[in-house]
Request: fold
Amino acid sequence: MSLVRARVLTSRAMSPFRTVQPATPAVLARVTVICAALGAQVRAARVRRRWTTGRLALEAGVSRSLVYLVERGDQTSLETYVRLGSVLGLRLDLSLEDPRAKAPAGRAQDPVHAAIVEALAARYGAQGRRVEADEPFQHFQFAGRADVTAVDPGGPDLLHHEVKTAIPNVGELAGAWNVKRQYLAGALADRHAIRGGFRSVTHVLTIAWTAECLHVVRLREATIRSLGPDGPDAFARWWDGGRPASTGVTSTVVIFDPVERSRATSWASLDAIATLRPRHQGHADLLWRLRDAGHA
Reply:
């Protein structure tokens, strides 16, 4: 059965109402994040109890293959999540929240996003840099968070990563990214009492190395390139433990894989986008690989 047809059948099973139009990419991306988070919670609770997938399936009255799909992050019915949660001692709570009032729930609950942030923070921390994750800042009416920042006091120099595991809306991404590029460095310099600001600032839009993300990047390549018009040299020096050779502000886009590979680099620049092959099909596949590697 195709994934599209499976989603249609699942949505019909979950609701007596039929949709008139196919789900938008933004809706599908949000569903993917939610299902991945729920699957991760189910698996974690099962492992804590030292249950096999067969034991969980038997207790919940579902098939073992369905347990496997749920833990992989695939979409299923609301009833299935309630069944699995009940026998594991978990309660499913649903809410709709205004993202303008607080950070979106998916940001904190997305294990792939968390794994990428952890990988970046661990690398720069091991280099002796001052690293912050999910650091808040505010400029007048705009309140935002920087996914990862690293400060090298020798410059002082600032590195900023914005991590994206899905790109449901390029326009919203561009708006938030441009505000951070303009105001983040000044806000952090004030916070850390750095007189005169940073010698150099390197902004890196960091996109998950999945087929889903690569598709969006290729589809909106001109827009994505405008968000990171500079080459990867400054970022590459940070990555290798050095400092940018030049002063000023640079912005670049990289494709990033948090799953370590012995003979392959963890990132690729936008210059390679035409020939870049995906390492993971989508968010759920990447989550599964991270679990196998013990990172989620």
